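Worked problem 6 (solution included).
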Amino acid sequence: MTSINPKGDQQPDTYFTGTVFANLVVTPADNLSSVIGKMTFEPRARTNWHTHSVGQVLIVTQGVGYYQETGQPAVVIREGDVVKIAPGMLHWHGASHHSSLTHTAIVPSAQPDGTTWLQPVTEEEYDAAVPATDSIPAPVHLTEAAHRNHEALWPEYKSRAKATDPELIEVFDNFAFDEVISHDELPVKTRVMVILASTIGSQALSEYKMTMDAALNVGVTPVEIKEILYQSVPYVGISKVLDFIYATNQKFTQRGINLPLAGRQSTTTRETRYDAGFAVQKQIVGARLDELYAQSPEDLLHIQRYLSANCFGDFYTRQGLDLKMRELVTLSYLVALGGTDAQIKGHVTGNVNVGNDRQTLINVLTQLLPYVGYPRTLNAIACLNGILPA
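Solution. The predicted structure is:
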């Protein structure tokens, strides 16, 4: 068995211009009916002009590039495009000016030496290859810190948006990965975990998947990710969390993490969950908890008991996250949800009661800003100032 995922070996400049990697996964030695490989071209990299005696099929899997046949204008190829190249057709292909290109190449024959390599594609030919209908995106200029911080989360990640929306990526990445991160010394694991929690509150499944990858890359454990997910259920609702659970399980499987995770994190039973939950809730809410019970109408007292037994007894008493982190991720759900000012104020107090000070909460809100936006961040700051004045 082999894998198509690695980039493979960097290719010599005999048949290529620029930096090109090849991972040949089905070779003539396999005695099958095709030769199949993955090719990755860095920006501006391309093949020489060449032909295939039996033709070729290219399946673009990532990035943006160009394909040109002799005597024809070049065409732009993007993820999802399939290029069918006739036998003997003189052509070249490669990455666009400002985006890398990855494609699977299939030669429908096991016979070796079916490729005839000719002269390189000159700079003039390459620059002229951009169709008039396809503008060349401006290069994305990231600060050294933005690039370094982004690479720490997603090593060698190739952004599709960088090719299609370079101006936005330049503004966002320099802000989120340099200016905002440079604001404070919040530990990277804490930063990624609160952002992960906020994506659940925002119902941002695509960003959640990206952030989950980053979390695993910086050492957040599968148990910690699952605990952030599970604790979101009483705050966001199971109907909004299920898709995130399925996406998490899919990612864990892809990364070789066995499911269900080993070890039981629950510390309560049906008989002990209320008392244990009430005790944890009292630690977080403080003396006001007794007032909430005393002030509750009789016909709503069951809701108070649900909060103690379910929200706190079933979830807050679990292992995997300590109380300080649980309060930070809860605050992150609430900020991202919006319209939860009363609950945010309660959990600002809760954070203080478990040991998270005003500066820690300011740091968390600062890191959440690029992901939840200014209105919800400013509302949360107003709640913070109302409870913990500067």
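Discussion: The mean pLDDT is 92.
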